[in-house]
Amino acid sequence: MSESETPDMVDSLTEELVEEVEEIMEKLVDSFNPLRNRLNWLLLALPVAVYAEHSGEMALAFAASMVSIMPLAFLMGKATEEIALRTGEAVGGLLNATFGNAVEMIIAMFALYAASKNPLIVDTMVTVTQASLIGSILGNLLLVLGLSMVWGGLKHPSQVFNSQVGHMNGSLLLLAIVAMIIPTAAHHAPGGTLEGVTIISHYTAIILLIIYALSLLFQLKTNVDDFESESTHHGHEKPAMTIRDAWVLLIIATGLVSWMAHTLVGSIEAAVEEYHLPELFIGVILVPFFGNAAEHFTAIIVAGKNKMDLAISIAIGSSVQIALFVAPAMILFAWFLGVPLTLEFGLLETTATFMAVLVANTTLGDNKTNWLEGAMLIACYLILALAFLQY
User: Fold this and answer.
1) Could you give the 3-state DSSP secondary structure of residue 169?
2) Least confident residue range of 14-18, 124-128, 253-257, 316-320
3) Residue 4 falls within a domain, yes or no?
4) pTM for this one?
């Protein structure tokens, strides 16, 4: 090959690469045009958050970044769903476990990293991290499940679901509650120390991660027939985009979520002063609500279509992921960073989570749902929200 041909070949390859990238972006823009999905209009909050952060208006940056995370979380979920449709059930389950609660993981990781760099904000960041994890569990168990039951019950007098799904996830949540109660009890027992709570939390986190891995193996491999309704539903869906486009969307959306999460964490203290809201309320109610909003919409919509198995899988399955995967992973991440994050979440938080699991398990005990049961779950969530607002 002559020297004159080399630049021509490089130019040709560059042009092909640029055309390919442009083609992918055109497909993404067309598939997720704001005119087709009203939720994407909230992406306008992203440049507002960037401007507010650079201009020093941190309270506005907090609100705008929190709002912008909502549509970005939806795009992450859509991309993950598209990828899972082309893979086996095991890979699809792993992707959903990894990215289904990615927003909470990213926010928690940034908060813990910030705490490791600045000892003055350790208490604030630990509180926000623990509160966001608890808030995600409460929001999914009470608000999402409750709204799904109400919307589905208004369209269908009584809805049934696969008992295996509810019973197994309920048992896993009870295990997670035990893991939260024991460190608290050990700390307040005679001779209990913070060092002992920390050791218990670290090794309990490892045990919970092992149990979560075993639960994935149970659902996706050894007892897959027990969860046939979910698999059948997903198996008949047709992909709306190529797997390459889905990966591009997932990478872009994850990057933007990380950016907004960084802005959100950095502006929490300003929001506390400006809006006069308790840190606990921000972590338990506001951050999980906006971070899981897209997931909330999905559960409610499918419940209205009389697909209660899928709605329960989204609501309770997400809580299980937080309790047995995200929370233990953050405990170990904090251990690595030297941040004192433990499974002792506080008396109010632990009690609220225990009551939420108890109410949800009781409600789902007869394998049927209706709108009144959903209204009761929502009422329980509102009572807890008031408690955290006054805490």
Assistant:
1) helix
2) 14-18
3) no
4) 0.77
